[in-house]
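Batch manifest line 173
LIGAND: coenzyme A
JOB: complex structure
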Amino acid sequence: MTHQLRPWHPEDAQEMFDAASDPEIARQLPPFETEADARAYIAKSAGSDDVVAYAISDDSEKVLGGVMARLNRPMRTAWVSYWLVAEARGKGLASRATVALANRLFDEDVHRLELGHRLNNPDSRKVADRAGFIQEGIMREELEYDGVRYDTALMSRLASDPVPDTEPLPGLE
Ligand SMILES: CC(C)(COP(=O)(O)OP(=O)(O)OC[C@H]1O[C@@H](n2cnc3c(N)ncnc32)[C@H](O)[C@@H]1OP(=O)(O)O)[C@@H](O)C(=O)NCCC(=O)NCCS
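JOB STATUS: finished
ARTIFACT:
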């Protein structure tokens, strides 16, 4: 089984909607009430100059996850996020997807990538580490979920930082 990044298709809306039933994934996406909301989000992202979003997929085109960046073009920065459905975790797909996205963005002259992870989300931290991000500091009580505020690590990777030893997922070359 090979894995790759590919653009989101309108037909992925049901799988994206289903994935968002996991509250940890829902936090990486806008709120969806119906599959039509996911379809609208896919269309809006595809039509935006400031969003770069790919599905993490396999030979069968099944949606295993997503990796995306929201660009601030004047500053040449981008905010990165990623998620995987539960059955696709533990295989390096998010780390490899994030490296591939970083390569693409640096090729497009983005200089600085940023992401934030709750301190109680160690799996996300490991993805950031494997994708070459470096911790800059702690954003105190930055995020709020279900009435609880969470300290959040701010991580960044610059175009000039060392390239991590993580093989990028194919699809964006
Ligand atoms: C965060 C999230 C994407 C991490 O998923 P993950 O499967 O742990 O991350 P990866 O796909 O990079 O896989 C890494 C694991 O695969 C293993 N692995 C296997 N082959 C690998 C390879 N070729 N390259 C890298 N890692 C590999 C790693 O050792 C690691 O396992 P470990 O944590 O036991 O050491 C996932 O937990 C998730 O979707 N959470 C909900 C959404 C979320 O929190 N997003 C981030 C918000 S900041």
